[in-house]
Amino acid sequence: MSADSSASARFADRRDLAAQDVLGLIRIALDAPDLGSGVTPTLHNLVSNTAAVGAAYFQVQPLTQRRGPQPLIYQVRAAFGEMPDTPGMQAIAAHGLPADTPLMRALASRHAPMFFDDVSHAPESAGFQELGVASLAAAAVTGSGGELLGAFLMHTFECHHWTDDEVRLFSGVVGTIAALTGRLAAEEQAQAAREAALRALGLALEVRDGETQGHTDRVTDMALRLAQHLGVGPAPLQALKWGAYLHDIGKLAIADRVLHKPGKLDAEEWGLMQSHVTFGQSFSSALGFLPPEALAVVSQHHERWNGQGYPARLRGEEIHPLARIFALCDVYDALISVRPYKQPWSHAEACAEIAAQSGEHFDPWVVEAFLTLMPPSQAHAGAVG
Amino acid sequence: MSADSSASARFADRRDLAAQDVLGLIRIALDAPDLGSGVTPTLHNLVSNTAAVGAAYFQVQPLTQRRGPQPLIYQVRAAFGEMPDTPGMQAIAAHGLPADTPLMRALASRHAPMFFDDVSHAPESAGFQELGVASLAAAAVTGSGGELLGAFLMHTFECHHWTDDEVRLFSGVVGTIAALTGRLAAEEQAQAAREAALRALGLALEVRDGETQGHTDRVTDMALRLAQHLGVGPAPLQALKWGAYLHDIGKLAIADRVLHKPGKLDAEEWGLMQSHVTFGQSFSSALGFLPPEALAVVSQHHERWNGQGYPARLRGEEIHPLARIFALCDVYDALISVRPYKQPWSHAEACAEIAAQSGEHFDPWVVEAFLTLMPPSQAHAGAVG
């Protein structure tokens, strides 16, 4: 009776200790800036408390890297301890594990953790012996639809019989962390999907207007570089990116006869063309989730430092700083691009025009930063279209 | 010495017990189908272990419900225990807490939990006495940018001095749960934003083509209703919704002279018009995150059951079931809408045409379901545009 209760107390202790540990690992994963660094302490915990010499977390490749009908790849997001020094393992470290490997297929269909004392004896762990792994434990990270978002793996170099304690530890620790990781990975995926949809909205216009092919991506990249150079922080940078994607979305509302007119626009046509800014603003507002800074980029990207822009004839610092940064990049990209009515300007010619417009079209502070970042004497790859 | 170690052991016990508790609450929140039901056990735990008679979780209103420049509202997502029976509290239960109330403003700027023994004595808890609350504890749920996504509140009806234990419990339990809730709420928000961006992609076309105003939303709603009636599950329903949003996105690439031609299209123009399907498919694929079922809706919505559709002349069950469902709704909406060349048909006339096309244009199984769901004899609100 006394022995019983002491054993049960010891068991409770171990269980409580594990709870404390897991809670600590959860807090780290929740507070980490990214999922990879967030789960590293979990991998450390596994290697410290089991016979495993190394552990890794694999996650399905980001949406932005997926290419058509090829099988999905699970990439290493975090690793701790020793990895086998084989060409196969180096390839996996560099390129990831394809979704059609037997282990990933097994994880996708079975949600309980799997333990292999000898990887050469089970069809699910086929291929791992060749990688230099002897024993393996694996747990799935799944999304709300049951899809396989990632996996936790730990391994030994010599054959090892996974003990009950190790099975309990791996199942317990990884069980909760995997559930959490699944949700955090879903958040990453949803954010990437929002990003892709916003970029697609911007690109939708280029479909109609062959001339501006690549303009959205080029001008977005340049505006982000210039803003970073000017010390803009992460949240406004994000807003700038969204605003840049959507800056010309209002041109979707402009008829072909105006948008594609080869000659000079008359007054009525010019008024219609200018309306793309106010239309773009109302369209972007209707999205419902863009921060005010992103909307400012859309609504103010044709304002000028000297008050001669449109639609509101804002002047100087009345114009949002992000819109001032973006306006310069937008004009630069137009200058170096070919148009039916003009040849592309050289980088040096475009810089000279931008310098001449300092204090007129553009904010002098932004002009100075631009000319420091991309000096006129330096060669730059011009725009293609 | 012995007293010391026993006190420390008791403290460790309590801490471990709390860790077990919090871990259990975390697992519930992670596994729950929605955040509201996921945090209810946490509220239960607070009311059971403190003097609080009631507790609630408020979350910022979904993106889809936000309207322009009005202040954000924090809506009740979960509540447990007793709430004051006052008109003010009933208004909050129904409409939420505006972001500009003193308490929400204080939570947005201070991230540590706040405790009010007497709400009438602190400016931050102004207004709560009128609601029938005497003592209050509040904790913020923040997003990665520090923005206030929600709040946990617990209250008493009589003035109560919050004890050290209660402060520790609320801070400890709510601390971790709030961090988790913040991430899960961010996932919800990111998903809503992706949804909004996809819908906006669909609506972008309507901007150019005044005729089809409202078509995207109407046809999406009807396709979802018909699919639900046919027993389609949640994941394919989601795919159908995305495909419906994007079905005509390829028309962005069609020139005005074809898209807006009032008369009959010649062979070359008709070829261009048909190309909107293949273009829409490549555009939708480029988004990178749409499931194959959504792409099937886009690429097959002009195929016909009898093999006379385009672009692939698929026949019968070669056409994806979601595309068969969608095609019928798309045609129905065109029939009941006004066009420059035709008056809107009545619901009964449209039903007669659809019935006549059973086994020709449409899958007989889908036609039957449609006529059951929307019988010809029943009046339906026609399309406006």
What does the model show?
The structure is a homodimer of 385-residue chains. Chain A is an alpha+beta fold and 385 residues long. Chain A folds into two domains: 2-190, GAF domain (Beta-Lactamase, 2-Layer Sandwich); 209-373, Hypothetical protein af1432 (Orthogonal Bundle), CATH 1.10.3210. The first copy, chain A, has 14 helices and six strands. Chain A has a six-stranded antiparallel sheet, with helices on both faces. In chain A, β5 (135-142) and β6 form a beta hairpin. In chain A, α1 (2-31) packs antiparallel against α2, α7 packs across α12 (321-336) and α11 packs across α12. The longest helix of chain A is centred in the middle third of the chain and has 45 residues, at 164-208. The first copy, chain A, is elongated and about 80 Å long. In chain A, 42% of the residues are buried. At the A-B interface, α1, α6 and α10 of A face α1, α6 and α10 of B.
Categorize the overall geometry of chain A.
elongated
Percent helix range of chain A: 40-55%
DSSP, total strands of chain A: 6
Note the quaternary state here. homodimer
* Structural domains of chain A: how many: 2
Q: pLDDT average of chain A, as an integer? A: 88
Provide the β-strand percentage band of chain A: 5-15%
Tell me the greatest interface. Answer: A-B, 55 and 54 residues
Low-confidence stretches of chain A: 1-13
CATH topology of the largest domain in chain A: Beta-Lactamase
Strands in their spatial order, largest beta sheet of chain A: 3-2-1-6-5-4
- Name the CATH architecture of the largest domain in chain A: 2-Layer Sandwich
CATH superfamily of the largest domain in chain A: GAF domain
Radius of gyration of chain A: 28 Å
Q: Biggest β-sheet of chain A: count, sense, barrel? A: 6 strands, antiparallel
The termini of chain A sit apart by: 84 Å
Number of helices of chain A: 14
Keywords (chains A, B): Hydrolase
Pfam family, one (chains A, B): HD_5
Protein name (chains A, B): Phosphohydrolase
GO molecular function (chains A, B): hydrolase activity
